[in-house]
Write a structure and sequence with these properties.
mainly alpha
Length: 82
């Protein structure tokens, strides 16, 4: 894999990760009525990044859209793990 392609793939993975963090944050706060602080702590534990990074991701503009099928697949996978 070329260096340029590797960088592009990494950027795409980060965009998807950020979109997932954003979607989870808004779901936790808007639909599940968790406080922002609780959502930040939860996402910190799951993704292993600090609150400052999560705040930056939540405030940033979204570059990638997650489909509802992707989110449904994730929810089913997570539910089967519990």
């Amino acid at each position: 894999m070329t260096k340029k392609k590797e960088i592009t793939c990494r950027a795409q993975r980060l965009d998807y990760r950020n979109a997932l963090i954003r979607a989870l944050f808004f779901h936790l706060t808007a639909h599940e009525n968790h406080s922002f602080r609780d959502a930040y702590v939860f996402l910190e534990k799951i993704f292993g990044i600090d609150e400052r990074q999560i705040r930056k991701i939540v405030r940033s503009s979204q570059k990638v859209e997650l489909s509802s099928a992707d989110l449904t697949k994730l929810a089913v996978s997570l539910h089967s793990l519990t």
